[in-house]
Structure prediction request, 371 residues.
Amino acid sequence: MENVLRPLIVVGGSVVLTLLIGWATDLLMRKADQRQSETPLWGLLRRGRIPYQLVIFAALLRGSYDEARVLVEHRVGIGRTLTLVLIGATAWLMIRIAAAVVETTYTRYSRAQRDPARVRRVRTQVTLITRVVTAVVAVVAIAAMLLTFPAMRAAGASLLASAGILGIVAGVAAQSTLSNMFAGLQIAFGDMVRIGDTVVVDGEWGTVEEITLTFLTVRTWDERRITMPVSYFTSKPFENWSRGGAQMTGIVYWHLDHSAPMEAMREKLRDILRECPAWDGRACDLTVTDSTPNTMQVRALVTARDADDIWKVRVTVREQMIRWLTEHHPYALPRVNTADSALPPSTNGNRPTPSPDGGPRRAHEPPRQAR
Prediction:
């Protein structure tokens, strides 16, 4: 009878204590979350209740397993398994706590900061910090798990002795990976590019959607995703339209006839922009920037709040201005001018004398003999 009751008391007591402690802790965090609704810390910490209860259960069962006196022949294996579970659950809990603290810090900063560029910068840093912490905790947890095996402890001295050679080999083999990791940290804390920035890379226009330690994802205007190593942004030039602020200045070009009504076009441009909700009202201008024998180049300068709005303003101005010119000033559109060619001075105003075979003869050419 004792052989049955003792294991049930040990295992059942561990389960009951785990549930009671977990329920009490969750109740306290719920009340704290209700009292301090301005901070999401307590609500985020509640996401770690599963690894928290697993840590408590593994610790209680590991400490009281010897009293159960069950499966004595497998005591070492069961004890090691419980130790591995305890290490893994502790690492899981630490990752959840670190993520909750970092996310809370970012939330407070984003509420207090009104500059979208700074908020995106902090968001990028927070994301990469969370990934680094997760990687470090996972590596330490795996190392701790391996050290629970006697064979690994015995091999520790030889592993340390060969660490220099292994480090050199690993560094050569993972050269590109390490360079991307350092490039990711440089991007996060160097403020080169942030999540949400509008960039142009390899002729593709898009928005930075995700940044990790090794790669970066750009979402293009047509919903494609371009994934590239983060080392690209530290080794090659690229356009960052959101650097220093989201406000944008756009340009629209037309090639028109020299008789185009410039003053009327300026008035029409202002009318178009007043009716365009994407225009931010900061500036507008229309000037002639170039001239060719057949046309002149007219440039309109417009502004908007961000890259998406500047695109809407540009296409709206281009379309409505061309429609207005077509309906009210068709002569302003480019056309091909044709006229009689001017004669060279050596002809004295006379046409070239035709040759007997019907072809023209130049003034300095002798008459051709008829065949």
